[in-house]
Fold these 2 entries.
Entry 1:
Amino acid sequence: MSSVITRRHLLLAFVLLVPAAAFLLEGAAELTPEELRGRQIYQEGTSPSGGEIVAVLGEDQIEIPASSVPCSSCHGRDGRGRPEGGVSPSDLRWESLTRPYGVTHPSGRTHPAYDERLLKRAVSLGLDPAGQPLHVAMPRFRMSLGDMADLVAYVKRLGGDPAPGVSETSVRIGVVLPPPGALSPLGEAVRAALAAQLARWNAEGGLYGRTLELRSVEPPAPPAERRAAVAAFLDRENVLAVAAPFLPGAEAELTTLFTEREVPVIGPFTLHPRSEAGRSIFYLLPGLEAQGRALARFAGSLPAG
């Protein structure tokens, strides 16, 4: 039975993988050198030139490395912002910042549209276009003029930059295998099945002319170590999406990681799907609890005796 479920699970993951990947690829365009440098500043808080970028926090003017609070940590990789702890970060997409009729925030604060000069002022001095202070949770950043220009160039592309794991010739898909040990044969079977399916798609032309490439990781069993190993894998391989990752034993750690990184996950193997998991995680099968409830309902429908 388990092998039948596994094959069915992988088939469903295959069916959803290519449409999801195609959706992520649509509209992607190459970034200029300036925008690429700006992306590093936005996502990582570090300067491609090696210069110092400092974040200044709160009324006490506490200085920390910008890498501790990069723009993407609050505004998201897509710039839309995500409410957290009572704070609603602004939508940084250029079309939102430059609305001709201005912007009204949830707090009631209003101001005219931004332009490049006013955005640089907001980043460095914490003032909106009307000269009003930004929320105290918004750091003020100190960086070189070149880094600031690169950051603004990338902000103007937020939401439309190329998807991760995509080059002109290839698309990288990731898979997280079970830890080494008794389940290694299962991991190898999953990896081989995914590789075979990707090979069939590549023989038919790939995805928008790009070759689909599989990247895999076999992390250690302890939950914290597994999260660290998968995080390093995502940093190293920069995959577009993760297909059929093995979660049992580290569900909380890995689903949190995928949600934080905004990595699309299709068909994770797990006994306990997390209802609070992020919108980028797509479960294909119910967990033990749901199966138990379904079994109980079925048993209750049977005639007595």
Entry 2:
Amino acid sequence: MSRVLHHWRCSALQAAAQDDGWLAPISSGLNYSLQQIQTGLDQLHVPYSYGWAIIVLTVGTKILTFPFTKVESALAVQKLKPTIDAIKRQYGEDKNSIQRETSALYEASGVNPAAGCLPTLATIPIFWGLYRTLSNVASAGLLTEGFYWIPSLSGPTSLAAQRAGTGTAWLFPFVDGAPPVGWEDAARYLALPIALVAAQFASSAVISPPIDDEDKNAAFSKGLLIAVPFMVGWFALNVPSGLSLYYFSNTIITSGIQIWLRKLGGAYSPLLLLTFIHWPTVRACSSFLCCPRQANSCASLFLVPGNHLFACWARRDFYVQLSW
């Protein structure tokens, strides 16, 4: 019986995947992976196997396709920002000198601000295919089981209702003073979108670079950081809970990977090589370099396994040397 049910599920998904156009090979492969994961979890008697299969597939796909290069490049540029700001203060309105010194800084630090664009673009078809996979699962009526407090991963609405503009009909307008699905089910379904909004805000607070208040786009950037979580939450109200579970899992794993890259060194040790605005005459002091007449001011600023970064100040200029 289970084999017949599994065959029916696969047939329904393959039929739905045929409408995915050029994404069909990707979504078909992800469809197959999702079914295999769900079947394996079922055989292990894992409760709510479909929900956990969505999470496992999301996490696995995210780890395999995460644009490490892009994130490491962004973190590198972010770490260099204090030095770049110092260059701007030093050269004022001399844009040519600022550009020259900034380019030299990037080159000396081994940082390419444009790095990672291609890896990021390469992941887009994968995650669009994953979205289509979960959409196909929902459309095929396979997300009938619940997930802990969520009554059904196919509820409280459908993709057809979303496309018709009635995705929130389960919540309002009220009928006899209550949501159409009732207060209890409405509260259960609302929990995941609320958790998703909270996760989006937490993710923005943890991984977003500081906003320079002097930047003319600062107000827009701050507004965007506030608006995006609510936009994602609104979208979650209009789709089946299985898709919301995917977005929630994706947010958590993305934040976790970026925290790992930032705090613990990531795919490679991302300690950034803060270098010079210009070099004075220096002399070696032990295993690191110090400024002449300022030897006592040398201090260890960062310590990452395998890397020791030391710096000293001399006449408002910042000098550092990496000691391996």
